[in-house]
Each structure stands twice: as structure tokens, then as C-alpha cells.
Amino acid sequence: MGAAGARTFCPMCANLLSKRISRRRAASFPPLPLARTATPRFWEVKRLTEMTETEWESLCDGCGKCCLHKLQEEDTGHIHYTNVACELLDLASCQCADYVKRWDTVPDCVKLTPRLLHRLAWMPETCAYRLLARGEPLPPWHPLETGDPESVHRAGMSARGRAVSELDAGPLEDHIVEWSDL
Ligand code: SF4
Ligand code: SF4
């Protein structure tokens, strides 16, 4: 189950499609190059398109929610989130277990870019990239605000403790969730 790019059909909605997106794997926080070179509070003064690669990567809060499968009604476009995680998502850390080589296992993993962001209506409401693209501030629990990568988990804003691997889940349609932070 969970073959990358596989279309999933729902008996209720007739036509549903699974989606996922890539994000960084944080080995440390903040990344050392960022600590040395980034403009202080760069996310408040730079456009997304002006950020360095390191700054862009550091925006990810590590929530893991973009690595959950979504189902989309093709007739209405409505997105249903599930609590089923990509097989490569480490459910404890909420990081990709094989980020550099992830496409070997998950070829449909999408690389997030500023240009693509505006077309991804299914990103979580709390996603830092989505918030900044809308001109909204980062939430107070964001690791860039707290200096602590665990703050996203303590705030209950990540997939930690709420997700199941696609290798164990069974049909996606049985796992639709309505979390308030999606
Ligand atoms: S391959 Fe990695 S980054 Fe991509 S969806 Fe899966 S866990 Fe997330
Ligand atoms: S939803 Fe956004 S902030 Fe959360 S892991 Fe994905 S890219 Fe990072």
C-alpha cells in the first residue's frame, strides 16, 4: 500500500487522490550556517523568494503534517487530511528518515519551492511557508521563535503521537481526520 503517486478512490466521493510534499530533515537546530550568516529575523524582512537556501529550509517547523496523505475530491476539490504518514516519515521525530535519497523510495515526493507554494492549497494552515506567503507572522511556538525544535511538538502542532505509517494503516479512507491545526 502507499505506492507513490497511487490514486486512491473513495466509495463516497467517487474520485480521490493522495498527495504529499517534501520538506527538510533537520539534523540540528538552528542550522549552523544560519546561526552565523542569516539576517536576524529574516522571515520578517525578506520575501520568500529573497531567502537563502539555508533560511528557506529553516522555515520548516518540523511538524511533519505535510508528509501525511491527503485525499482530494476531484469534483469539488475539497481536501481531506488523513493521519496516515508517508512510509519514510519517522513518527517519533516527524522527520524524513531518508531525506537525501527519498525519491528512490517515494518518487512523487514534491520539493517545496516559493513558486510552487502558491499552488498548494492543501498545505496545513499552520505551515510556516503558507503563513508567510499570506503575509502572516510565525506562531509563537515556531522553533525560529523559541530556539527549540521541540516547541512545535510541545504545542501539539506536529504529527507526533497522532500518525500511523502507511505501511500499517490500511485504506486511507478509514483514516480521515479533522484536526484543528490542519
Ligand atoms: S519522502 Fe520524506 S519528505 Fe517526502 S513525504 Fe515522505 S517523509 Fe515526507
Ligand atoms: S507542513 Fe510546512 S512547516 Fe510543517 S513540516 Fe511541512 S513544510 Fe515544514
TrEMBL record:
<protein>
    <recommendedName>
        <fullName>UPF0260 protein RSPPHO_03042</fullName>
    </recommendedName>
</protein>
<dbReference type="Pfam" id="PF03692">
    <property type="entry name" value="CxxCxxCC"/>
</dbReference>
<comment type="similarity">
    <text>Belongs to the UPF0260 family.</text>
</comment>
<dbReference type="InterPro" id="IPR008228">
    <property type="entry name" value="UCP006173"/>
</dbReference>
<dbReference type="InterPro" id="IPR005358">
    <property type="entry name" value="Puta_zinc/iron-chelating_dom"/>
</dbReference>
